[in-house]
Amino acid sequence: MSKAAMLLSWAALSCCFLTAETAVPTVTLNSSGLVEVPQNIPNDTRYAYLDLNRISIVRNDAFSYLPELTRLYLDRNRIDTIEDHAFHGTILRQISMQFNQLKWFPNLTDVRHSLTTVWINSNRLKFIRAEQVEGLTALEALFIGGNVIYSLLDFSILHSLNDIGALGMDIQCCNKVISLKSLNNTSLKIKPSPCTYPEELVDVDWQSITRDHMSKPCPGQRDKNIVMQVHNGANDRYPDVFVNKELTKLQATLLYKARLLKRASKISRVWSRDGRILVMDKNSNSSGLFAKRPCVLHTTCAVESYKEM
């Protein structure tokens, strides 16, 4: 951290206080001009407010020196990257990341047993996959409104979840999200007519839609089954990989190999788009295994060539 940033951070830390009502050690660093997560917050802090700053990346172990941290607010920053172990060492129960620039649902595995509430409204999310949230055993409330999400997960895998906020979102009302109909009006915040698929449900009031109406397969599901057939009998089933174009046998093989690399923690993400297999490198150099050019950290590369590994 630069000297100026350190001075600014120390000045902002004068806002640290013990709230009279709850006696909870709290740090407020809102609108402090921070460009990264400060490393000098008192380590007994339980609530941290870092809203309205200029933070763009939350790095691994950014909060690991705050073992009592239970609430974290990062709203209205410029965050486009949250590394896989950013929240390691904490006992977060609530995290708010609203109005940022996140394209990926963050890895919250390190707080999977404590986290009860996530606000990730108004980011740039395009999809949420089961594998990104299925370990969040304590999650009770998830707020994702204001994102343009074209592929949602089956929420029934989150056994503790009883509140979903999806205001301002269009939804593909298909069999994958049929579990939404199990939630009452209090538990589900959604616009009156959210369906963009199938055609017969467009402009239909949500309260009039039944589970039977949502029995159609989701768009892209057929393509996923094609990939599964290519790999009939393989151990890797890569659930909820979004495929929106039929893959050739070679492309399906590439997808399978890429998923194996992900399981070996050599790459962080893999998906298919328009018949291309895309990977996001976890290291600074992908060694050209999946692309004609090496991937750069936090970028995506199309899989254009194949080599045995």
UniProtKB/TrEMBL annotation:
Cited Gene3D superfamilies: Ribonuclease Inhibitor (3.80.10.10)
Coiled-coil boundaries: none
Signal peptide bounds: 1-22
Transmembrane segments: none
Keyword Mitochondrion on entry: no
Keyword set, alphabetical order: Leucine-rich repeat, Repeat, Signal
Pfam families: LRR_8
Stored InterPro entries: Leu-rich_rpt, Leu-rich_rpt_typical-subtyp, LRR_dom_sf, SLRP
PANTHER family the UniProt entry points to: AGAP008170-PA, INSULIN-LIKE GROWTH FACTOR-BINDING PROTEIN COMPLEX ACID LABILE SUBUNIT
Name of the protein this chain belongs to: LRRCT domain-containing protein
Classification of source organism: Eukaryota, Metazoa, Spiralia, Lophotrochozoa, Annelida
